[in-house]
Design goal:
four-stranded antiparallel sheet, alpha+beta, 9 strands, five-stranded antiparallel sheet, 2 helices
Length: 184
Protein backbone atom coordinates (compact mmCIF):
# COMPACT_ATOMS: atom_id res chain seq x y z
CA UNK A 1 0.00 0.00 0.00
CA UNK A 2 1.43 3.37 -1.02
CA UNK A 3 1.42 6.22 1.45
CA UNK A 4 -0.46 9.21 0.00
CA UNK A 5 -0.24 11.48 3.09
CA UNK A 6 2.18 13.95 1.55
CA UNK A 7 1.89 15.99 -1.60
CA UNK A 8 4.61 14.77 -3.93
CA UNK A 9 6.38 16.90 -6.54
CA UNK A 10 5.91 16.11 -10.22
CA UNK A 11 9.69 15.54 -10.56
CA UNK A 12 11.98 14.02 -7.93
CA UNK A 13 13.79 16.88 -6.21
CA UNK A 14 16.76 15.20 -4.50
CA UNK A 15 19.15 12.37 -5.15
CA UNK A 16 18.90 9.25 -3.01
CA UNK A 17 21.20 6.39 -2.20
CA UNK A 18 20.01 2.84 -2.89
CA UNK A 19 19.16 1.11 0.40
CA UNK A 20 21.52 -1.69 1.39
CA UNK A 21 18.64 -4.18 1.49
CA UNK A 22 17.47 -3.51 -2.08
CA UNK A 23 15.92 -6.39 -3.98
CA UNK A 24 14.78 -6.23 -7.57
CA UNK A 25 11.53 -8.05 -6.84
CA UNK A 26 8.60 -5.87 -7.93
CA UNK A 27 7.90 -4.75 -4.36
CA UNK A 28 8.48 -1.38 -2.69
CA UNK A 29 9.23 -2.74 0.78
CA UNK A 30 12.74 -1.25 0.91
CA UNK A 31 11.18 2.19 0.53
CA UNK A 32 8.35 1.56 3.03
CA UNK A 33 6.08 1.99 -0.01
CA UNK A 34 6.87 5.73 -0.15
CA UNK A 35 8.00 7.42 -3.34
CA UNK A 36 9.83 10.65 -4.13
CA UNK A 37 7.59 11.98 -6.90
CA UNK A 38 4.25 11.58 -8.64
CA UNK A 39 4.29 12.41 -12.34
CA UNK A 40 0.79 13.72 -13.05
CA UNK A 41 1.02 13.34 -16.82
CA UNK A 42 1.94 9.65 -16.63
CA UNK A 43 0.05 8.96 -13.37
CA UNK A 44 3.05 7.14 -11.91
CA UNK A 45 4.71 7.35 -8.51
CA UNK A 46 8.47 6.87 -8.73
CA UNK A 47 11.87 7.03 -7.08
CA UNK A 48 15.29 7.10 -8.73
CA UNK A 49 18.30 6.21 -6.59
CA UNK A 50 21.94 5.33 -7.01
CA UNK A 51 24.98 3.81 -5.35
CA UNK A 52 28.58 4.19 -6.46
CA UNK A 53 28.03 1.61 -9.22
CA UNK A 54 24.28 1.23 -9.71
CA UNK A 55 21.32 3.27 -10.90
CA UNK A 56 17.86 2.21 -9.78
CA UNK A 57 14.28 3.08 -10.75
CA UNK A 58 11.08 2.02 -9.04
CA UNK A 59 7.63 2.90 -10.40
CA UNK A 60 4.20 2.39 -8.90
CA UNK A 61 0.99 2.62 -10.95
CA UNK A 62 -2.59 2.42 -9.68
CA UNK A 63 -4.54 3.37 -12.80
CA UNK A 64 -5.60 0.25 -14.76
CA UNK A 65 -5.08 1.87 -18.18
CA UNK A 66 -1.58 3.01 -17.19
CA UNK A 67 -0.75 -0.48 -15.90
CA UNK A 68 -1.91 -1.96 -19.22
CA UNK A 69 0.28 0.50 -21.13
CA UNK A 70 3.31 -0.43 -19.03
CA UNK A 71 2.78 -4.15 -19.43
CA UNK A 72 1.99 -4.04 -23.15
CA UNK A 73 4.45 -1.33 -24.19
CA UNK A 74 7.14 -1.40 -21.52
CA UNK A 75 8.93 1.40 -19.74
CA UNK A 76 12.13 2.74 -21.25
CA UNK A 77 14.60 3.92 -18.62
CA UNK A 78 16.97 6.28 -20.45
CA UNK A 79 20.31 6.91 -18.79
CA UNK A 80 22.32 9.77 -20.16
CA UNK A 81 25.86 8.68 -19.34
CA UNK A 82 27.68 11.74 -20.67
CA UNK A 83 25.33 14.41 -19.32
CA UNK A 84 24.32 15.57 -22.77
CA UNK A 85 20.84 16.07 -24.16
CA UNK A 86 21.73 13.63 -26.92
CA UNK A 87 19.68 10.43 -26.61
CA UNK A 88 21.85 8.85 -29.30
CA UNK A 89 24.67 8.33 -26.75
CA UNK A 90 22.39 7.13 -23.94
CA UNK A 91 21.75 3.73 -22.43
CA UNK A 92 18.11 2.68 -22.78
CA UNK A 93 16.68 -0.21 -20.79
CA UNK A 94 13.16 -1.29 -21.76
CA UNK A 95 11.15 -3.69 -19.65
CA UNK A 96 9.08 -5.58 -20.40
CA UNK A 97 10.30 -6.36 -23.89
CA UNK A 98 8.61 -9.07 -25.90
CA UNK A 99 7.65 -9.94 -29.41
CA UNK A 100 4.04 -9.55 -30.51
CA UNK A 101 3.48 -13.30 -30.42
CA UNK A 102 4.27 -13.40 -26.70
CA UNK A 103 2.15 -10.38 -25.74
CA UNK A 104 0.51 -10.74 -22.31
CA UNK A 105 -3.21 -11.10 -22.05
CA UNK A 106 -4.41 -8.05 -20.11
CA UNK A 107 -8.19 -8.46 -20.15
CA UNK A 108 -7.97 -10.09 -16.73
CA UNK A 109 -7.07 -6.63 -15.38
CA UNK A 110 -10.69 -5.64 -15.86
CA UNK A 111 -11.50 -7.93 -12.94
CA UNK A 112 -9.79 -5.39 -10.72
CA UNK A 113 -12.78 -3.05 -10.87
CA UNK A 114 -15.22 -5.87 -10.24
CA UNK A 115 -13.99 -6.70 -6.73
CA UNK A 116 -16.92 -7.07 -4.35
CA UNK A 117 -17.75 -4.60 -1.57
CA UNK A 118 -17.30 -7.26 1.11
CA UNK A 119 -13.79 -6.76 2.56
CA UNK A 120 -13.23 -10.48 3.20
CA UNK A 121 -14.26 -11.38 -0.32
CA UNK A 122 -12.17 -8.50 -1.71
CA UNK A 123 -9.07 -9.73 0.08
CA UNK A 124 -9.57 -13.30 -1.13
CA UNK A 125 -10.34 -12.32 -4.74
CA UNK A 126 -7.57 -9.71 -4.86
CA UNK A 127 -5.03 -12.22 -3.53
CA UNK A 128 -6.13 -14.81 -6.10
CA UNK A 129 -6.05 -12.27 -8.94
CA UNK A 130 -2.66 -10.99 -7.81
CA UNK A 131 -1.20 -14.50 -7.87
CA UNK A 132 -2.74 -15.25 -11.27
CA UNK A 133 -1.54 -11.97 -12.80
CA UNK A 134 1.96 -12.32 -11.37
CA UNK A 135 2.19 -15.91 -12.62
CA UNK A 136 1.13 -14.73 -16.09
CA UNK A 137 3.72 -11.93 -16.04
CA UNK A 138 6.50 -14.24 -14.85
CA UNK A 139 5.75 -16.74 -17.60
CA UNK A 140 5.65 -14.22 -20.45
CA UNK A 141 7.76 -11.19 -19.62
CA UNK A 142 11.26 -12.61 -19.60
CA UNK A 143 13.11 -10.19 -21.85
CA UNK A 144 14.74 -6.78 -21.37
CA UNK A 145 15.51 -4.49 -24.29
CA UNK A 146 18.96 -2.88 -24.09
CA UNK A 147 20.48 -0.12 -26.23
CA UNK A 148 23.75 1.74 -25.88
CA UNK A 149 25.68 -0.81 -23.78
CA UNK A 150 28.78 -1.75 -25.76
CA UNK A 151 29.47 -4.89 -23.68
CA UNK A 152 26.06 -6.31 -24.64
CA UNK A 153 25.93 -7.35 -28.27
CA UNK A 154 22.26 -8.34 -28.38
CA UNK A 155 19.57 -5.71 -28.13
CA UNK A 156 17.40 -8.08 -26.07
CA UNK A 157 18.57 -10.00 -23.01
CA UNK A 158 16.93 -12.38 -20.57
CA UNK A 159 15.73 -11.18 -17.17
CA UNK A 160 18.05 -13.92 -15.86
CA UNK A 161 21.15 -12.26 -17.33
CA UNK A 162 24.61 -11.70 -15.81
CA UNK A 163 25.03 -8.31 -17.49
CA UNK A 164 24.16 -6.18 -14.44
CA UNK A 165 20.69 -5.27 -15.69
CA UNK A 166 17.71 -6.43 -13.67
CA UNK A 167 14.03 -5.64 -14.09
CA UNK A 168 10.77 -7.06 -12.80
CA UNK A 169 7.18 -5.95 -12.33
CA UNK A 170 4.52 -7.37 -10.02
CA UNK A 171 1.01 -6.69 -8.82
CA UNK A 172 0.30 -6.19 -5.12
CA UNK A 173 -2.84 -7.22 -3.23
CA UNK A 174 -4.59 -3.98 -4.30
CA UNK A 175 -3.77 -5.02 -7.90
CA UNK A 176 -1.53 -2.00 -8.31
CA UNK A 177 1.70 -2.51 -10.23
CA UNK A 178 5.28 -2.04 -9.00
CA UNK A 179 8.19 -1.98 -11.44
CA UNK A 180 11.85 -2.32 -10.37
CA UNK A 181 14.86 -1.73 -12.64
CA UNK A 182 18.57 -1.77 -11.79
CA UNK A 183 21.46 -0.85 -14.08
CA UNK A 184 24.98 -1.67 -12.98
Amino acid sequence: MVTFGQKLPNVQQAGLRIPGNIKIDGKANEWNNKFQAYNKSTEIFYTIANSNNDLYLILYAINTSIIKKIIQGGVSFTINIQGENNIKNSVVITYPHYDNENKPYSAVLSSRSELANDITQNDTRADSLMKALNKQLASRLKMIGVEGVKAIEDSVISVYNNDGIKAVGLFDTQLNYTYDCLYR
